[in-house]
Specification:
It contains ten helices and twelve strands. It is α+β, with helices and mostly antiparallel strands. The longest helix is centred in the C-terminal third of the chain and has 22 residues.
Length: about 350
């Protein structure tokens, strides 16, 4: 008998502050359609898709009462009602009704939503992390304990929200202007206004993509930036009309084997320490062959052209030669990983 799975997605009918123009766009709908096509290739599964967050609580309640599904595939990385600060609300709701689901639990999501806190945890374990300063509330930027250039971004959130070409600053005046700009954007979405200022590391950006629980399968991916700034802005990820939309590609890491082993060891520790489940991503920046942690992504993007899929298909995958079968195999790996965990928890 086929397993019945309910896939929870972001609400396409509601505003989304992270996406281009603050809403779901045709390219975002295409991502969902590719997901559905890839999952349809899997034998032994039946999938329902749910994105109406106004009715989500009732949907979950009925599913709990009737036993409608074997489990839920939580792919809502947008957060409840497309609010990133409410990312943990969906697994909270599922746990309230004792329903199994894929991915991280609320505690993990809440911790990892705070980038400064994650880096502090890493540093306490001896894992290198870029130097940073947290600017809270309405505080103004002061002299930094490290040299410029610096990188400015929201401390909470994801999807490169509020990151643009001016996020790389070279003096205190630029820093103060960018802090003010980001803070205003955060206020417009009622988000937390804490801002993180990091030392800028100009080396390679490495993603460690993880699928697993007891045994972790970790694949490394290197960003190949096609521009001088060497970082991904919001436009790079969300705006197809941007000049930087197609500038970033993915390649196999060109770092020494010893460094690769360090990144894998650090990622294993963080996956367990932060209590990630089933899959996650950890982003590092290189400086003189030392990998510095930037952030942890326990509810990372699952899209066909995202870092998770790219990492597990590297060598047989490019944006120009998309393989639906390959993408399907990555999604299946996540499902079977979660199913093994469910079996241990029964």
């Amino acid at each position: 008998m086929a397993k019945k799975i309910c896939v929870i997605l972001g609400d396409t009918s509601l505003p989304d502050p992270v996406k281009h123009n603050g809403k779901f766009n045709p390219e975002d709908i295409e991502v969902i359609e590719r997901l559905k096509s890839a999952l349809a290739l899997l034998d032994g599964y039946e999938f329902d898709y749910f994105s109406d967050h106004k009715l989500l609580e009732e949907k979950v309640k009925v599913a709990s009462e009737k036993g409608s599904y074997d489990y839920f595939l939580n792919l809502c990385d947008e957060g409840f009602q497309n609010r990133p600060e409410m990312e943990a609300n969906i697994p909270m709701l599922l746990e309230l009704h004792n329903l199994p689901y894929t991915g991280a639990a609320p505690g993990c999501l809440n911790i990892c939503y705070d980038k400064h806190a994650v880096k502090a945890i890493a540093k306490s374990a001896g894992i290198p992390a870029s130097k940073d300063v947290l600017i809270s509330g309405e505080d103004e930027a002061e002299a930094l304990p490290f040299e410029f250039p610096a990188f400015v971004k929201p401390n909470h959130g994801d999807g490169s929200f509020a990151i643009d070409k001016n996020s790389l600053v070279h003096n205190i005046e630029q820093l103060r202007v960018q802090v003010k700009t980001i803070r205003e954007r955060l206020k417009q979405t009622n988000a937390k206004t804490d801002i993180l200022v990091e030392e800028y590391l100009s080396g390679e950006e490495i993603t460690a993509a993880v699928i697993g629980n007891g045994e972790l399968d970790i694949r490394l991916l290197q960003e190949n930036f096609g521009c001088d700034t060497r970082f991904s802005s919001s436009d790079t990820k969300w705006n197809p009309n941007s000049d930087s939309w197609t500038l970033t590609t993915s390649i196999a890491p060109t770092i020494p084997d010893k460094t690769k082993e360090e990144i894998i060891r650090y990622s294993k520790y963080l996956f367990k320490r932060l209590e990630c489940r089933d899959y996650a991503r950890f982003d590092f920046r290189m400086d003189k062959n030392v990998p510095y942690l930037l952030e942890a992504n326990p509810n990372c993007g699952w899209c066909w052209d995202g870092h998770l899929a790219r990492a597990f298909l590297l060598g047989s995958y490019s944006l120009d030669s998309f393989s639906l079968e390959g993408y399907s195999s990555v999604l299946e790996k996540i499902l079977t990983t979660a199913e093994k965990r469910f079996g241990r928890e029964v």
